[in-house]
Each structure stands twice: as structure tokens, then as C-alpha cells.
């Protein structure tokens, strides 16, 4: 990635987000806020090119959507922001999913931080409750090459979306992306439904 381009990406995305209807600067210039009905969104632009997208319930202050990612390329950044704005306007999107698909397999959840470990544990808990016979483990995405043969499926966390095309060309359908909306809203049921067939 060209460093000049990457340095421009953060101010460019900040300016683009600020142009959206209803978005205003919050307590400091690195924080943008917007509200919609009974929920509100906050966007943090951190110094290290990290962005945090958060949606909370106005009444309970409960997190409904939480996604942190590095501004690596414009395509991936736009995908994450579009998911955020779409959910902000349509929070009812998360519908119950069918639970009748079962398949025993070993899944690697590949990401780059503690959130990935948390997700793997939460998904493992859910598949154990459903007695699906699935093993899910979190590892750093740098380990995919070394571990690919030990797993039936590799799930990439949304923060790694910029790597998907590269991995898909090498490994095909063995690599799947976790939908950013499902990841950010902790919709574990939907993730299991989409990947365990």
C-alpha cells in the first residue's frame, strides 16, 4: 500500500462521513455523532488510522453495533461505513435465522486482535449449546498459510476484508468473510447459519 495514499485515506474518509446528513462533530474533532430514531451512532477516528463505528440504544445505552478496523484501503473502508449507515437506518435488519443446518467441521476464525478471540469463544459456546459438533478457534490472519490444511473453513473477520481476494484466489471456497453487520452486532446466530451448512 502506498504510504502517501494511506495517509490521505483517514482525512478523506473523515470528510466524506462528515458530509452525510445528520452527522456533526462531537466533543472533539476526532469524534463524529449522528442520531436516528431511538438509536445513535458514534464514529471515532483514532491517530493510528483506526476507526471505530459504534451504534447504541438511546434509552439503555446498550451497544447494538461495534466495529473497529484499520483504514487500509478505500474499498474496504466504504464497505464498513455503508454497513454502519445502513444498520443505523434499519436496525430491525437482524431477523432470527433458521437453525436446522448441521455439519461437523473445524473452523479457523482469522483476525488481528482480541475481538477475534472473543468472537471465536462466543461462536464456540453457541455451537456447543446447539450440539453442532463444530470446533472454532481464533488465530492471527498471518497464520492462515501455515494452518490452512488443518481446518475445513477459514472465516476472515471484517477487519481483514482487504485480504479476502488474495486468500480467495489461493484457497477458493475454503475462505469466507464474516459479514460486517453480523460481526459488529454480535449476531452469532447469523454467522453460524451462513457458514455451517
Automatic annotation (TrEMBL):
<feature type="domain" description="PTS EIIB type-3">
    <location>
        <begin position="103"/>
        <end position="197"/>
    </location>
</feature>
<keyword id="KW-0418">Kinase</keyword>
<keyword id="KW-0813">Transport</keyword>
<dbReference type="InterPro" id="IPR036095">
    <property type="entry name" value="PTS_EIIB-like_sf"/>
</dbReference>
<dbReference type="GO" id="GO:0016301">
    <property type="term" value="F:kinase activity"/>
</dbReference>
<keyword id="KW-0598">Phosphotransferase system</keyword>
<dbReference type="Pfam" id="PF02302">
    <property type="entry name" value="PTS_IIB"/>
</dbReference>
<keyword id="KW-0808">Transferase</keyword>
<dbReference type="InterPro" id="IPR013012">
    <property type="entry name" value="PTS_EIIB_3"/>
</dbReference>
<dbReference type="GO" id="GO:0008982">
    <property type="term" value="F:protein-N(PI)-phosphohistidine-sugar phosphotransferase activity"/>
</dbReference>
<keyword id="KW-0597">Phosphoprotein</keyword>
<dbReference type="InterPro" id="IPR003501">
    <property type="entry name" value="PTS_EIIB_2/3"/>
</dbReference>
<dbReference type="GO" id="GO:0009401">
    <property type="term" value="P:phosphoenolpyruvate-dependent sugar phosphotransferase system"/>
</dbReference>
<keyword id="KW-0762">Sugar transport</keyword>
<protein>
    <submittedName>
        <fullName>Cellobiose-specific phosphotransferase system component IIB</fullName>
    </submittedName>
</protein>
